[in-house]
Design brief:
Blueprint lengths: L3 H11 L4 E19 L8 E2 L3 E15 L3 E12 L2 E5 L2 E18 L4 E15 L5 E17 L4 E15 L3 E17 L3
Antiparallel strand pairs: 1-2, 1-3, 1-10, 3-4, 4-6, 5-6, 6-7, 7-8, 8-9, 9-10
């Protein structure tokens, strides 16, 4: 990832795009996590109850627009509400925050932009028993609707579905983040 991201940004900044701009907006993510504890001694695996929480966040970044594509690279940050994680007979209160880099490419079909991309996530997950920081990549699919307000200024909203997994020798974790976004985009040229 340390090589991929700078290479992606270099290609982005040196391509033959017609327009560059900035993007900024708010987002409302819904985080879901399913964990399976793997039994190393041949017994049956244990599925924990799904962990679900809602949050708020923001994103800010740069955009590149060609006749048919719109690419956005943004820094984002999400804070989730405190929820309880159920582990067998005990209940653990949690505090979840995440930030990272998000890159998407959308196909411009009038106001509609079906998109794909990735999110590099740096997650801070804390509870009294086991605070942890992890990094992982989520793959993203979604749809934005972008309405022009002038030749340079746009308002957009959309839905992004991101998913990925973290496989360890002791557990298998599936992450899903469903995000509603609302933002503004400004092009530096017409």
């Amino acid at each position: 990832m340390k090589v991929f991201l700078p290479l992606f940004i270099l290609v982005f900044l040196t391509s033959c795009a017609a327009k560059y701009g900035i993007v900024a907006g708010a987002q409302m993510p819904k985080y879901e996590e399913d964990v399976t504890i793997i039994d190393l001694f041949g017994g049956s695996d244990t599925d924990l109850e799904p962990y679900t929480t809602d949050g708020t966040g923001f994103h800010i970044g740069i955009s590149e627009e060609t006749d048919w594509l719109l690419t956005k690279i943004s820094y984002y940050q999400n804070t989730y509400s405190n929820e309880s994680y159920k582990l067998e007979s005990s209940t653990i209160k949690t505090d979840l925050k995440e930030s990272g880099v998000m890159g998407t490419t959308g196909f411009k079909l009038w106001w509609f932009q079906p998109l794909f991309g990735f999110k590099y996530v740096s997650r801070e997950y804390s509870n009294p028993q086991a605070p942890s920081d992890t990094n992982y990549i989520l793959w993203t699919l979604g749809m934005d609707i972008e309405v022009p307000m002038s030749k340079r200024f746009y308002v957009y909203g959309g839905y992004h579905y991101s998913s990925g997994s973290d496989l360890d020798i002791t557990h298998d974790t599936e992450f899903t983040v469903k995000t509603m976004v609302l933002g503004l985009r400004y092009n530096f040229s017409e």
